[in-house]
Amino acid sequence: MSSFRFLLASALCLLLATACGEEEPLPPAPAPTPVTPAPATAAEDAGVAELARLASMSGEVWLERGGKQSPATQGPLLRGDALETGADASARVLFADGRTVEVGAQARFILDEDSTGVVVMVSRGIVLSRVPAVAAGGKAGPRVHLTLLTPFGLTRLGAEESEVRLDVGQDESHVEVRLGSVEVVAKNGQTVRATQGQEVSVKAEGVTTRVLELAPVQVTVHAGTGRAEWRQKGSARWRAVDRKGEALGAGDSVRARQGTALLNLEGSESTLALGQGGELVVEGVARSGMTDEARLDLLGGELGLTLAPGHVSRVVFPGLLLESNGAARLDVRRTGDGFTVDSRAGDVTLVRGEARAPLRAGERATVAGEAAARVESLARAPVALASLEGQQVFHRRLSEVALTWDEEGEVRVEVASDSDFKRPVLSGVARRGFVNVKAPAKGSLYWRVRRPDGSELTHGHASFGPERSPKGQLDRLRNRVPEGPEKTTIFFQDKPPAITFTCQAETGAASYKVAVYRSGALGQPVAERSAASSHVPLEAGLLKEGSFLWSITPLGPKGQPLRGGRMNKLELVFDNSVPTLVVSAPREGQRAGARVRVIGVAPVDARLSVNGKPLALDSKHRFDTWVASAGQPPVVVFKMSRPGAPDVYTVRTLK
To answer: For residue 332, which of 445, 320, 221 has the smallest C-alpha distance?
Structure first.
């Protein structure tokens, strides 16, 4: 028998003895490296000895099996397998009963089993074990009894609901119990039971238990956009937030009169964004190690939570606790009898009293009264951007956009306002092929999507700004048409422009009258106008495309003609060489019915769709039709595609 197998057998025998109440001290744990697990057989590869599955990973993750090391892939993990993570890497291991073990960066463990259940031998790094009350989907496999074995002792987790974080260092290991209870045994045989809220330090000479203590964290509020105000605890006076920010104490209040108020946590990438009309009380923010806890009373409005990667975040509201292990982006809204919580990215846990419920990325939870939280899928935003470069979105009041990709399944998404991703907007897990993101009024969004193994799936970029339509310029354009023998031709785009008819001023004239006739129909004018000067205006859109005859007659003080009017020629010609999309209807902010009329003109080489459906254009690339609005508030989304150019979106938000 090899020396490794002899040591391993001895360790397992003594583990059994300890479980039965004997007080024999544990022998030294086997050296974590080098390790040469028994070669996997064909039967094992077929799943006979499968102990768990590698469900997801990011960064460099290596699997050692049968003495050979290779890059890890998602799939079964067998007895004797060793898993190792590199810098900035992580992995998630799934067991039959729904339990997960999350492995942090630069960690290593070996899977084994004994008569009590599965043994995870951790030689270095951080692992987080979660045991759900009910497995995902409600289908629980056989209960797994898990033991975490380290060079300093062991931690028995059992099969009950629990959450435990284990950090193995060079000289000691730390066991942090976040939920449930565990049994910790040191190498000298000392045994303690640790419960929720306790941390155990395990060294060769014994075990030390202490209550987790959170140190206060400074919170600073800034006015993100618009006007933000704050009020000191016990004061009735609201004050404007200084441009440099205001430090908040426990019990201080914040409200956003216009725009948003941003709350930053000292030493953390987590931020809180209070939306317009919102108000909250900061009851306290504290930290212990990599755990942040914010206690807030959201009195009204919406609060956006950007939770930092690599941290355990706990956000406590009256009657509701949100827990996240890693990056997440949440929107919390106060309702009349509770809250709604949207998870744009990242998985969190909702805690109400003793009840715990998962909220996964792309879901909304409605919490009201004493009833169980109602969870439903979030709808994709009506404006959906593919993962492409250089897209443009023109809008005035668009609330959010969906960033999309083609591959279903678990991915990690990062969104930032800069190409270097130094100004993050959102990060976290997503599963449904999209994430909804707040649309910037002006600026850019950059995003990248990575598979669980860390490889990039796709990326994209879009710029946002107010609509740059030539419509306003066309409305202001006033073509001057002089009286004379030459025909005047006016080319127009969108609707026919305003026209000013002119002639030489006539002595004694009190006013001038213009009459316009369609060619071949001189019996009835299509338009008549009068003015006090020799420049007589005609409003835009009154004359349609075609050929016309017109005259201008000077009139005396009593309205008598001072001379006969000469007939002049005018032609209005539609020119479809517009450089960009021109939308005449609907107008921004107009009321929407079941169907909305859309009118406009597109460039010659453009393809156009409205709310995802192709739009038919006439021979001059004009359109005039009715469509159904989408979303709430209702929007009409025009998407224009041209050869060799990025897609351009024009969005009209209605009432």
So the answer is: 320
Q: Three-class SS of residue 497?
A: coil
Higher pLDDT: 415 or 351? It is: 415
- State the chain's mean pLDDT as an integer: 85
**In this structure, which amino acid lies at residue 255?**
R
Can you tell me which residue has the tokens 């440099």?
A: 244
Q: Which residues contact 608 (CB under 8 A, 6 or more apart)?
A: 581, 602, 614, 615, 617, 623, 638, 639, 640, 641
- How many residues are recorded in the chain? 655
Q: How many CA atoms lie within 13 A of 446 on its CB side?
A: 9
Structure-block tokens of residue 312:
């355990």
- Three-state SS for 194? strand
- The rounded distance, in Å, linking the Cα atoms of 259 and 252 is 20
Number of Cα atoms under 13 Å in the Cβ half of residue 501: 30
Pairwise pLDDT comparison (573 vs 217), residue with the higher score: 217
- For residue 113, which of 134, 141, 135, 144 has the smallest C-alpha distance? 144
Nearest alpha carbon to residue 194 among 183, 204, 186? 183
Residues 6+ apart with CB under 8 A from 335: 366, 368
Banded pLDDT at 33 (limits 50, 70, 90): very low
Using alpha carbons, select from 548, 434, 433, 462 the residue that is nearest to residue 499. Answer: 548
Rounded CA-CA distance 308/428 in Å is 9
571 Cβ contact partners less than 8 Å away, ≥ 6 residues apart: 487, 488, 489, 490, 546, 547, 548
Mean pLDDT of 531-537: 93
pTM of the model: 0.64
What is the C-alpha to C-alpha distance for residues 9 and 306, in angstroms, rounded to an integer? 48
What are the residues whose beta carbons fall under 8 Å from the beta carbon of 41, sequence distance 6 or more? none
Coil, helix or strand for 40?
coil
